[in-house]
Hints:
Radius of gyration: 18 Å
Order of helices and strands: EHEEEHEEEEHHEEEHHEEEHEHE
Number of domains: 1
Strand content: 15-25%
CATH topology: L-arginine/glycine Amidinotransferase, Chain A
Number of strands: 16
Low-confidence stretches: 111-116
Strand order of the largest sheet: 3-4-5-6
Largest sheet: 4 strands, mixed
Helix content: 10-25%
CATH class: Alpha Beta
Shape: globular
Structural class: alpha/beta
Amino acid sequence: MIQDYQTNMVYLAHGLSHYVPVCRNLLEALRREQIHVEFIPYTSSYKQVWARDYMPTQLEKTLFFLYQYWPDYLLGYDGYIPNVLKIIKHLDLGRILTMTLSKDQPMVIIDNLHHGRIPKELILDGGNFVKCGDKVIMTDKIFQENNWIERKELLSILENYLQIQIVIIPWDRYEIFGHADGMVRWIDGNRVLLNNYVQTDPCLRKRLLEALSPHFVVEELEYNVPRLSKLSWAYLNFLRVKKCIFVPSLHAKEDEQALEQIQQHYPGCKVLQVQGCEELARDGGALHCVTWNVLADAPEWPKEEL
């Protein structure tokens, strides 16, 4: 499975242009670091700001795992979900691996997307897929989304066919999406970085540590400020490409401390802040949510303009 530090290219949804400051600042930051940027086709609606959740997971350079993205938080809001098959066909990504959950043919390679379809039986979400080497962290929201299948069977299917170990953590119920990428991120080896639950939700922190500690050494964020920003969760929702980490700036007192702590935990990376992310955070996402980073044969210097 391709890890974030191995990627060299970033895709953004065209809808991000409606968030003018962060779109401009993110593009400038990526280009300064000579990271190639392209835009996902068929995502021009102002509703289609996010990119992570519906785009496939890269397993190998030319092999991607495609899942059904139809979360309960978007029921009745079809306009937020673009035509993923149309996007993939346009991008010509390579081989697309998808699940049918058929005993005879549990996994299918879609070579001809004119006739391919995304199976509707299994619902996953890119924001709830935190890669950690040979492991993936997901919240237990996946069990609610796929409540027609036994939990053990669901995990067994995913682990067997994706050749990974899945670590389940409790879902932060203050956040309707059930995403793990705003809760915990991989550092390296067996180390992960947990958000500042020590300040915001000690009870949930205890449950998270119980779930994570058997598999990882857990580091934690914490801020020394008179009053904690309600958006402080967003710092961990950063974008990592090659040896660069792009951290959201929220124009909050925690900005500098977030930058310093993340740099300490990722000493081999260049950590940069992207200004103007507070509006994104108020709408429920940050830089990891609005990007899709991959390993590709891409020029080192971006050409496309917004």
